[in-house]
Amino acid sequence: MAKKKEEVVRGAQTSSPDGSRAINKFRVSDFVMMLFIVLLCATCVVPFVHLAAKSISGNSFVIAKEVYFWPKGINFDAYVSIFKDGSLVYSMGYSVVVTLIFTVLGMIVCTCAAYPLSKKRLKGRTFFTIVLMIPMYFTAGVIPTYLLMNDLNLLDTMWVLIWPLIYSPYNMLIMKTNLQASIPDSLEESAFLDGASNLQILTKIVLPLSKPIIATLSLFYAVGRWNAYADNMYYIKTDRLKMVQYKLYQMVASATEAQSATLSEQAAVTSTPEVLSAASIMFVTIPIICIYPFLQKYFVKGAMIGAVKG
């Protein structure tokens, strides 16, 4: 009995005020888990640091493969070349406009599809859900899609980058699941008793309570549009209508075949292909890196809420 009392006292001494026990041993499994997380983070951070170092290093050091994680012969000639040329800067601004329009229209379509399907009072809800989920599993393919865009006179226009992709079955399913889990039916019933319409309930009750999932899906839409370049390759011929990711793809592909590369004749600074490619990648990637930290908490919370129930 005395030994049991001593064990209880020791256990109480190692417990924190909130009832949780303090960790007094560092096990091998903890070390392995931490090492795995560090290596996983390194796979994302190390390539970025390497590119950043090359983008501001001297050409001779980069050609000699002497630049790893710290720049040598620091200069900003590649960035000066990008801004003097202007084509990549214009594509950046154009890509921002397309991404904003695409995200806004995508969220409107996603909300208009998910909100009715989340209500049990909608007749034929299961049928409409199946119909709207078909594009998630079956697609027409590149050639039929190209012919359809041609018949709609959307080829070589800004709208061919927006209209075909604004509806996402996956995003709609996440929002529908979130609305079913987070918005109680009693809240909407009380609003109906007060004389509110469906549109008023959506704009004044549902959307203000759904900020995390809205931020999450907006991030999905924006990042997906920003990183895509296949549709640029298929549907766009005019240079001024090409988004920055496709311009970057063309630049890197052409630069690998040249000994030295410039963006255009207007760019006075000449850089090696490797330095110019690194600077261009950094120029395109930095906006996403600057925006993401402000939406990260909504991203994690919204993704978890949308994945709780099916």
TrEMBL record:
PROSITE patterns, per the entry: ABC_TM1
Residues passing through the membrane, by range: 31-53, 92-115, 127-148, 205-224, 275-295
Membrane topology according to the record: Multi-pass membrane protein
GO biological process, one term: transmembrane transport
Superkingdom per UniProt: Bacteria
First-listed, main subcellular location of the protein, grouped into a coarse class: membrane
Domain (ABC transmembrane type-1): residue spans on this chain: 92-294
UniProt similarity note: Belongs to the binding-protein-dependent transport system permease family.
Protein name: Carbohydrate ABC transporter permease
Organism: Candidatus Acetatifactor stercoripullorum
